[in-house]
Amino acid sequence: xxxxxxIIDERLxxxxxxxxxxxxxxxxxxxxxxxxxECLKIKLGAKAKTAGRLITKRELGKISFxxxxxxxxxxxxxxxxxxxxxxxxxxxxxxxxxxxxxxxxGEIFKTKTGEISILxxxxxxxxxxxxxxxxxxxxxxxxxxxxxxxxxxLIINPEIKDIFIKKAKFWNIARKFLLDRxxxxxxxxxxxxxxxxxxxxxxxxxxxxxxxxVYLRISMGELWQKKLMVAGYEKTFEIGRQxxxxxxxxxxxxxxTQMEFYWAYADYKDGMKIAEEIYKKLAKEILGTLKFESSGxxxxxxxxxxxxxxxNVIKKHTGINIYSATxxxxxxxxxxxxxxxxxxxxxxxxxxxxxxxxRKKIAGPGFLxxxxxxxxxxxxxxxxxxxxxxxxxxxxxxxxxxxxYSELNDSLEQEERFKRQEKLKEKGDxxxxxxxxxxxxxxxxxxPPVCGFGFSERLFACLINKPVRECVLFPLMKPEK
Length: 481
Prior knowledge:
Low-confidence stretches: none
Radius of gyration: 29 Å
Distance between the termini: 19 Å
CATH topology of the largest domain: BirA Bifunctional Protein, domain 2
CATH architecture of the largest domain: 2-Layer Sandwich
Shape: elongated
Strand content: 25-35%
Oligomer: single chain
CATH superfamily of the largest domain: Bira Bifunctional Protein, Domain 2
Number of strands: 20
CATH class of the largest domain: Alpha Beta
Strand order of the largest sheet: 6-10-11-20-19-18-15-14
């Protein structure tokens, strides 16, 4: 800490001296004409004017070097006696420090070692850094410190910055894919009086103007988008943030970006086809290949996608017949497998915990089908087997990477299912959605056959083989004490 204080004191002294000499260490503007990437491509001998952060500084007597980096890359800048004016050379040596933002003008040349560089003729400090940057190899090592000071993580680890460039591209590809197929992008409420469209614990707050409690949405406007299908829209989608008051791990966050689309006159089989198409498009554009490794699983999206039957997979890996087994038998099996579960959730919540244990054994790619109607209150029943619903979940790397189904549009059955869900909620299952009477009323006006499907940024994390929290610019952190 003594060394850091010394550095801070020295820099504060430089700021004071600069101001005494009429030099503003924080000017309002710099006319940046070239990015660093452009400078690296300019022909030798040409003039360049660029700006960025100084990330290294070396003084070797009659010559000094620094690396200047902007969002497009890094380039060496050189100060040399006889070629750089004495005034500029001395200014750099006296006032410039690693971490400062600087603007430079000069001439493109190649050093004896063959490195494209800028021979500096002018330099201007654009923002004087007071705190020293961490050293790359001795700096931010602890994950919590990296997340808390993500801006430093991005400065010293350019490869982390690349994650978020790819992430922006990921969502733009998804958006263009849907727009090109005639889907309309919509915005639905984030604050809801009754959270619906998923099974999750919501965040609750109070809206003073109306004196009512409201919830942050737990789905990407599922019930709202289906109301749009009632209204006559035939293809809609939304990409936005949704919120769930649950734990954080390598796959889950309290808020994250989700995409959901709703497609009239289509069923879950149509959804499976378009989902496979968009996943392949995303992988090809982001990774350049359909083959990748994630969480220890080797995945090839180019091979035939398998079908996994919910009932059969659970029986294969646990020996449990989900329809004939009692709640007690399922509980014993979960205890045996050391799987945590909510004892007040009822039989089908426990069955779903069994499935989540089993899916870890599946690399994918494939579609999980044949889910019981009891765990999917918004999906249409399978006409051939009413115990099950027309639902599909995409399974990659041992986890769910997308969910879709033929939407239930029978208002009377939907009302009955909501009532059953309400009873589970009363028993203490805080994740179960309640009875949304307004949505049922909308369905009673008639909704066409619809396929709905969605995936979250968990898919992006899977593609680049990173924990989902690593793929968030500024993860939620407890305040420092």
